[in-house]
């Protein structure tokens, strides 16, 4: 072999060695990154907490810190932590109550806490009853439906507490929740009526949109909005004339634009809805109503 050939071979082998070395380095880096990702992943999926971290988060008073730490502590084995977390049931922050309930339902004390929350619904303290409803929503036990339904219809509780009870029934979702929710649709409290309609839409198997049709003319704006959402979701064709009336005469632009949207969403018959939508698309005072009316016109049925 000549000197030049030997030198060329040496350079070629050296180049290949550098390439292999670089590739190996990149593969090693990727492997290390993968290991780190795997190690970091579980810390955000129920692992990586400690009793000290839970205590520290609760002591901080920060809702974000508490929620993040309890999520990391999902699978933490710590009997003492139950005593730290249980008082959060009565936090002033609804999101903290929610995550406390989510965490506690995964512990062996859940049945005891569940019984305590049911007992609160039979007592006159609206704040404790509201908090109990939030915890029962996190637990989502169908056996809570009778107690929540009875408390929902109790006018001694504040609007806020009764709204929380309606919300809990909607979260539980079981068909048995429909009756107590429907039972307060004529309640004197508009917040309760609106919350009941919202919750009914979540109940499994609920299809009777007729209960919301008459509420399209309710005196409360939010109730009318919830009624529109309900008939639209359930595609209640008997509500189309009522929606047309709302679109033509409701004093609230927020309600009128939702009525226009609902008519399109339901593929309302053009013979019934088109004249009102055409008028609204050009003459309504609100540009949002005009825009939604134009969009709805393209979705009408025969």
Question: Mind explaining what this structure looks like?
Answer:
The chain has helices at residues 3-40, 51-60, 63-72, 79-85, 94-104, 110-120, 126-139, 145-152, 159-172, 178-182, 190-200, 210-213, 221-233, 240-249, 253-265, 270-283, 287-297. The longest helix is centred in the N-terminal third of the chain and has 38 residues, at 3-40. Residues 1-43 have low confidence and may be disordered. The radius of gyration is 30 Å and the shape is elongated. The protein starts with a helix and ends in a 5-residue tail after the last helix. The chain is mostly helical. Helix 11 (190-200) packs parallel to helix 13, helix 14 packs antiparallel against helix 15 (253-265) and helix 14 (240-249) runs parallel beside helix 16 (270-283).
Mean pLDDT: 88
How far the N terminus sits from the C terminus, by CA atoms, comes to: 90 Å
Strand content: under 5%
**Low-pLDDT stretches:** 1-43
Helix tally? 17
H/E topology pattern: HHHHHHHHHHHHHHHHH
Main beta-sheet annotation: none
The coarse silhouette is elongated
What is Rg?
A: 30 Å
Instruction: Give the class from helix and strand content and strand pairing.
Output: mainly alpha
Described by its quaternary structure, the protein is single chain
Q: How many strand units?
A: 0
> Which percent bin holds the helix content?
55-70%
């Amino acid at each position: 072999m000549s000197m030049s050939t030997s030198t060329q071979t040496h350079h070629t082998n050296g180049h290949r060695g550098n390439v292999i070395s670089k590739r190996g380095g990149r593969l090693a880096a990727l492997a290390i990154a993968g290991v780190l990702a795997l190690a970091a992943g579980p810390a955000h999926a129920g692992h990586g907490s400690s009793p000290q971290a839970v205590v520290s988060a609760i002591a901080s008073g920060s809702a974000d810190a508490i929620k993040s730490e309890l999520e990391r502590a999902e699978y933490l084995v710590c009997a003492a932590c139950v005593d730290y977390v249980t008082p959060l049931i009565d936090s002033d922050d609804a999101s903290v109550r929610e995550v406390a309930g989510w965490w506690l339902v995964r512990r062996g004390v859940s049945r005891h806490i569940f019984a305590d929350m049911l007992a609160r619904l039979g007592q006159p303290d609206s704040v404790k009853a509201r908090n109990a409803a939030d915890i029962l929503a996190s637990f989502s036990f169908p056996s809570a439906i009778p107690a929540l339904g009875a408390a929902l219809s109790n006018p001694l509780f504040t609007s806020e507490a009764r709204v929380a009870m309606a919300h809990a029934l909607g979260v539980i979702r079981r068909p048995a929740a429909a009756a107590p929710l429907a039972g307060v649709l004529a309640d004197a409290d508009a917040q309760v009526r609106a919350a009941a309609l919202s919750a009914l839409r979540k109940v499994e198997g609920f299809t009777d949109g007729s209960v919301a049709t008459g509420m399209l003319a309710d005196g409360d704006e939010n109730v009318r909005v919830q009624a529109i959402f309900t008939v639209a979701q359930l595609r209640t064709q008997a509500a189309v004339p009522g929606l047309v009336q709302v679109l033509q005469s409701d004093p609230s632009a927020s309600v009128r634009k939702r009525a226009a949207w609902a008519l399109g969403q339901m593929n309302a018959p053009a013979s019934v809805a088109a004249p009102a939508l055409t008028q609204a698309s050009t003459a309504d005072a609100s540009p949002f109503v005009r825009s939604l009316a134009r969009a709805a016109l393209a979705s009408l049925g025969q």
